[in-house]
Amino acid sequence: MRLEGSCHCGRVRFHCEAYAPVPYQLCYCSICRKTAGGSGSAINLGARADTLVVEGREHLGVYRARIRDGDDCRLSGGRRHFCTSCGSALWLFDPEWPEYVHPHASAIDTALPVATERVHMMLGSKANWVPVPEGPVDIHFDEYPEESLEEWHRRHGALG
Q1: Which element (helix H / strand E) includes 63?
Q2: If 0-12 CB within 10 Å is exposed, 13-18 middle and 19+ buried, where does residue 57 land?
Q3: N or C: lower Cβ tally within 10 Å for the chain?
Q4: Longest dimension (CA), the chain
Q5: Which residues cross the membrane (predicted)?
Q6: What does the alpha-carbon distance between residue 21 and residue 149 come to, in Å, rounded to a whole number?
Q7: pTM for the model
């Protein structure tokens, strides 16, 4: 599926081919909350990195989160791309998996498929003021689920 996306101010526009286009995961970790500016964000759309085409690259910034583990702190491998003009979170790229790019669903302008199931993850670090839906289609994880993005899409017949 071809995904077209942009930042809020329109200085950055991009498109890519998604193999996993369903925005079924909502992450409540502090990195996603603070870099995307909300209570939890639909994340992990999966696309092929070699199909990513960007207009307005001069307006891109990259943020690498600091991961705290007790007294230790390391730099995340994930590179969160954002517009330096308006701050919109656009996509994540991690060189550990160079064949993939993960567009933020919030930056996608293309109509996305509606998920038949919602995975709420990283609930162990969500903000206390955030309500989490608890319906028949909601599945909850304190950390990351074991099922991968690809496995979930395959199980739901949505893998491109």
Answers
A1: strand 60-63
A2: exposed
A3: C
A4: 44
A5: none
A6: 10
A7: 0.91
